[in-house]
Amino acid sequence: MALAIVILALFLLLCFCAALFQWNEVRYRKNGLPPGTMGWPVFGETSEFLKQGPNFMNSKRARYGSFFKSHILGSPTVISMDPEVNRYILMNESKGLVAGYPQSMLDILGTCNIAAVHGDAHKLMRGALLAIVGPTMIKDRLLLQVDEFMRSHLRNWDSQIIDIQEKTKQMAFWTSLKQTTSIVSGPLWESFTIEFFKLVLGTFSLPIDLPGTNYRIGVQARNNIVKLLKKLISERVNSKIQKDDMLGYLLSEENKYKLNEEQIIDQIITVFYSGYETVSTTSMMAVKFLHDHPKVLQQLREEHIALREKKNPEDPIDWDDFKAMDFTRAVIFETSRLATVVNGVLRKTTKDLEVNGFLIPKGWRIYVYTREINYDPFLYSEPFTFNPWRWLALSWQRIGNCRGFYIFTLLCN
Q1: Which helix (H) or strand (E) covers residue 19, if one does?
Q2: Which residues, if any, are the signal sequence (predicted)?
Q3: Residue 389, φ and ψ in degrees, nearest 5
Q4: Higher pLDDT, 286 or 376
Q5: Is 266 helix (H, G, I), strand (E, B) or coil?
Q6: Distance (Å, rounded) from C-alpha 51 to C-alpha 75?
Q7: pLDDT digits (tens, 9 = 90+) for 208-244
Q8: Any long-range contacts for 138-146 (C-beta under 8 Å, 24+ apart)?
Q9: What are the beta bridge partners of residue 79?
Q10: Helices (H) and strands (E) in the chain, counts
């Protein structure tokens, strides 16, 4: 009797789940929407999207084509894997499209984060960010500071077994921490490090505010980082000592983009976050590719040895050295192409919008998926082969005209 009750309960549970799943599909089955599946209510297909990555995209494209709907990261979303449609979307943001990052990311990175604001506020935040990480700042300040930091950081690798993934993560965050706040050691440095890695966990999660969820952990980490930064800003203002870092520049009279405390904090967190995953993963993959391709490593060494022979051992890399690193730049481009850290960008519709012959409702997100462009044989011969020399064969004009590089440039802007 007890076994029969258990079997009946399981059967009813399966029926309920199937009905719930079907209800969610019918709910989004509107005329004009692209094909696709929506998964479970609230959760959608987020779990599959995060776990399967490119395999999720490829299986969906095989079934529905290059333009389909899903429900990921807490929002109904149309995913575009068509290069021409992607270009149209990125070129027409003023026509009913704005940045559409997940709510969890916006909550954790802040309401003044550049991805969360539009119009005049976006222009202000963009100007403030370019003032601290733009070409002039890189040339005059950041290049020398990063050179000094990396020399010190790499000395600690001597005579050790190195976990490259862990070391490149540390490198990316610690150099950002130094450039933004001049913090390199001590209790404050440890507090920032612990809280930041918690913050990163929460940004790509469902915005479910329950104990133990990545979202709750990420929000709490943000609150702790905000407290640390407020204390640091207060100390700077009260002491009237201006340090040569990004925070010092944002607080200075020299900065023409006047920001309040909340805006400054969100810009600092943005700099922490934006350089972390991309720099650490690209650096790690560069080491792997160089290990796997001795000829590339040898030519890279020769380029740097030739530059070092013109300098004293402790002389830093300067702007002219940086511009002369043609093969180094080619290795970076090829690593970025083949590793593809950034798979795409999210946009949000501000009104009902027709895209690619389909009607996308107001408030939906569009995921402009650009990853596959990097492996397009029309653009790159033998696209899965690590070949930095392909970039040396291209003029800068041809690189600029390349669809993949064009979209990459748009993402950076």
Answers
A1: helix 2-27
A2: 1-19
A3: -65, -20
A4: 286
A5: helix
A6: 17
A7: 888 889 899 999 999 999 999 999 999 888 887 778 8
A8: 139/319, 141/244, 142/179, 143/316, 143/317, 143/318, 143/319, 143/322, 144/316, 144/317, 144/318, 145/178, 145/179, 146/175, 146/179
A9: 68, 367
A10: 19, 7
CB-CB contact of 75 with 49 (8 Å): no
Amino acid at 71: H
Tokens 């023409």 found at: 256
Question: Position of tokens 């993560």?
Answer: 169
Cα–Cα distance between 218 and 261 in angstroms, integer? Answer: 21
Residue 400: the pLDDT is 44
Amino acid at 195: E
Name the token pair of 321: 């050295």
Give the CA angle between residues 166, 170, 172 to the nearest 5°.
Answer: 120
User: What pLDDT was estimated at residue 6?
Assistant: 56
**Strand 75-80 vs strand 365-369: parallel, antiparallel, or unpaired?**
parallel
Q: Residues 134, 138, 141, CA angle at the centre, nearest 5°?
A: 125
HSE value, Cβ hemisphere, 13 Å, CA-based, for 283: 18
d(CA 363, CA 377): 35
